[in-house]
């Protein structure tokens, strides 16, 4: 069985740095979206959604929702980039995407991913191993 291809540690760390920022931004954006939805439908929405909605919160929601969608797409692309650089399995990719769906989970997911990246870079061969020797 051939030896596994070495990882590019510099590229992996750069990719993780971008993913880390995206995780934090996505977490904040999702929390803002949840607050907007609560204000729109629970606090000012009345009993029947979409009929007695406050025009202000309806406008805020219509502006913020696509912005959050764009932020999530950037998060997914950067998660995919990290997944490719680390050569992880499909399950890890799905987990990275899932972290951005539930409020505050992206913050915990970022910490967990950081631990996995560090552990994998310490355990697996990298292109930079020769430079250290």
UniProtKB/TrEMBL annotation:
Localization per Swiss-Prot or TrEMBL: Cell membrane
Domain DUF3817, residue spans: 17-114
Xref: Pfam families: DUF3817
Membrane topology: Multi-pass membrane protein
Keywords associated with the record: Cell membrane, Membrane, Transmembrane, Transmembrane helix
Main location: membrane
Taxonomy, superkingdom: Bacteria
GO cellular component, as recorded: plasma membrane
Name recorded for this polypeptide: DUF3817 domain-containing protein
Organism of origin: Brachybacterium ginsengisoli
Taxonomic lineage from the root: Bacteria, Bacillati, Actinomycetota, Actinomycetes, Micrococcales
């Amino acid at each position: 069985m051939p030896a596994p291809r070495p990882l590019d540690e510099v590229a992996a760390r750069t990719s993780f740095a971008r993913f880390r920022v995206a995780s934090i931004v996505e977490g904040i954006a999702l929390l803002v979206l949840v607050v907007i939805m609560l204000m729109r439908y629970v606090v000012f929405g009345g009993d029947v959604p979409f009929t007695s909605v406050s025009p202000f919160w309806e406008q805020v929601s219509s502006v913020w929702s696509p912005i959050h969608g764009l932020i999530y797409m950037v998060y997914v692309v950067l998660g995919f980039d990290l997944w490719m650089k680390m050569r992880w399995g499909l399950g890890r990719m799905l987990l990275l995407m899932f972290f951005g769906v539930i409020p505050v989970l992206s913050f915990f997911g970022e910490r967990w991913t950081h631990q996995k990246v560090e552990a994998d870079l310490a355990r697996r061969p990298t292109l930079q191993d020769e430079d250290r020797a």
